[in-house]
């Protein structure tokens, strides 16, 4: 089956009154786990007639919870407080905390496809690997510059594993991407998307932007990076939402996509497992949900959301999408359509 993005429609809404920074879905269910601006981690069943969130029990975080990832029956969260916390999904309680996982804000966490590794990235410009079961530190990867070209602190925003789990990609505020082998730590490619970094040398002497999202295609051949284009007024996210798609092994940029309708940061990207489209969510004071044709880079379908979208999660067959926003969680239905690439038996004539 394939999915037709044009048929997306909202099905359920759960108002939080909080900024929801990241979300993960429990497999074979509609239960979501999410981190928020009140420093809490919550669970909510979106299948309920009136979804009600439940706070996970424990000492928890002391600042914004910006990274949420599931590894089997363990939930791992990262925060601006520099902690990584492990939670028992069934009991909904904290079971482990690494207080000094990073020395500065944790921006994102990711779990390897086999569920055995956790990667975290932080403003200390380090990517760290952890054992997803025990929480033991395994490796620390350096390589991203701590200072921008204008001698201000940089940030390490994005991290993702390749679908086979052998590669890890990270990206920073200046638009620099590093791809390395997970096992050895060897750097196999470096890419740059400098348009996603804006420096104002006059009014504010300040920079904004950066790559906020990374995603490998299902076959591992392509790497998409999301952020924002050049910004005129750096006090606002007034630049166009921007995506660059690379054939990373060849070092070639396949697409440069700037959306004239939607402004702000591309916070998360998802490749269609069948290689037909690329999903981007993000926003400025409003949010957007956009599907792009992967062959042409053209818009297939796009919607404006009332609030900035920070993250997405899918069900197993890609027929239900969950989005995390300022103030709410939303679920969306997408209708499957037949795969017309397969031969169809002609109808038999009536007798």
What report would you give on this structure?
By secondary structure, the chain is mostly beta strands. It has one domain: YVTN repeat-like/Quinoprotein amine dehydrogenase (Methylamine Dehydrogenase, Chain H). It contains no helices and 30 strands. The protein has strands at 2-3, 9-25, 31-36, 41-45, 54-55, 65-71, 74-79, 84-88, 93-98, 106-111, 117-122, 127-131, 137-141, 156-161, 167-172, 176-181, 187-192, 197-200, 206-209, 213-216, 222-228, 240-247, 252-263, 265-271, 277-283, 287-293, 299-305, 309-314, 320-333, 336-337. It has a six-stranded antiparallel sheet, with no helix packed on it. Strands 6-7-8-9 form a four-stranded antiparallel sheet, with no helix packed on it. A hairpin with a 2-residue loop joins strand 6 and strand 7 (74-79). It starts with a strand and ends in a 14-residue tail after the last strand. Mean pLDDT is 91; it is low at 338-351.
Characteristic terms for this protein:
351 residues, mainly beta, Methylamine Dehydrogenase, Chain H, six-stranded antiparallel sheet, four-stranded antiparallel sheet, 0% helix, disordered C terminus
Percentage beta strand: over 45%
- Fraction of residues in helices? under 10%
Q: How many domain units?
A: 1
Rough outline: globular
Number of helices: 0
Structural class: mainly beta
The largest β sheet comes out as:
6 strands, antiparallel
Biggest sheet strand line-up = 5-4-3-2-29-28
CATH superfamily: YVTN repeat-like/Quinoprotein amine dehydrogenase
State Rg. Answer: 20 Å
List low-confidence stretches.
338-351
Regarding quaternary structure, what we see is: single chain
CATH topology: Methylamine Dehydrogenase, Chain H
In total, how many beta strands? Answer: 30
Mean pLDDT: 91
- Tell me the span between the first and last alpha carbons: 32 Å
Order of helices and strands: EEEEEEEEEEEEEEEEEEEEEEEEEEEEEE
CATH top level assignment: Mainly Beta
The CATH architecture term is 7 Propeller
């Amino acid at each position: 089956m394939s999915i037709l993005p044009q048929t997306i429609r909202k099905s359920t809404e759960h108002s939080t009154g909080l900024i929801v920074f990241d979300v993960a879905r429990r497999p074979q269910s509609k239960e979501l786990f999410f981190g928020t601006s009140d420093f809490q981690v919550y669970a909510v069943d979106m299948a309920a007639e009136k979804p009600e969130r439940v706070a996970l029990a424990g000492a928890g975080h002391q600042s914004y919870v910006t990274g949420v990832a599931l590894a089997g029956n363990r939930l791992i969260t990262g925060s601006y407080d520099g902690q990584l916390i492990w939670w028992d999904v069934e009991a909904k309680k904290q079971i482990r905390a690494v207080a000094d996982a990073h020395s500065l804000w944790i921006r994102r966490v990711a779990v390897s496809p086999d569920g055995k590794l956790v990667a975290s990235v932080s403003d200390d410009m380090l990517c760290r690997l952890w054992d997803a079961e025990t929480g033991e530190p395994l490796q620390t990867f350096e390589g991203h510059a701590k200072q921008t070209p204008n001698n201000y602190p940089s940030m390490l925003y994005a991290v993702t594993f390749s679908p086979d789990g052998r590669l890890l990609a990270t990206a920073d505020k200046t638009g620099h991407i590093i791809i390395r082998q997970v096992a050895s730590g060897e750097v196999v490619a470096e890419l740059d998307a400098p348009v996603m970094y804006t420096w104002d040398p006059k009014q504010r002497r300040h920079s904004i932007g950066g790559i906020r999202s990374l995603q490998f295609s299902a076959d591992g051949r392509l790497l998409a990076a999301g952020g924002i284009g050049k910004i005129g007024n750096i006090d606002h996210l007034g630049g166009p939402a921007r995506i660059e798609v690379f054939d990373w092994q060849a070092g070639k940029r396949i697409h440069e996509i700037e959306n004239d309708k939607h402004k702000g940061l591309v916070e998360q990207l998802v490749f269609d497992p069948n290689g037909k489209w690329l999903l981007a969510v993000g926003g400025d004071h409003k949010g957007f949900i956009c599907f792009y044709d992967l062959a042409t880079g053209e818009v297939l379908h796009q919607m404006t959301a009332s609030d900035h979208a920070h993250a997405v999660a899918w069900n197993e067959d890609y027929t239900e999408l969950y989005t995390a926003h300022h103030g709410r969680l939303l679920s969306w239905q997408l209708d499957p359509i037949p795969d017309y690439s397969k031969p169809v038996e002609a109808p038999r004539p009536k007798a």
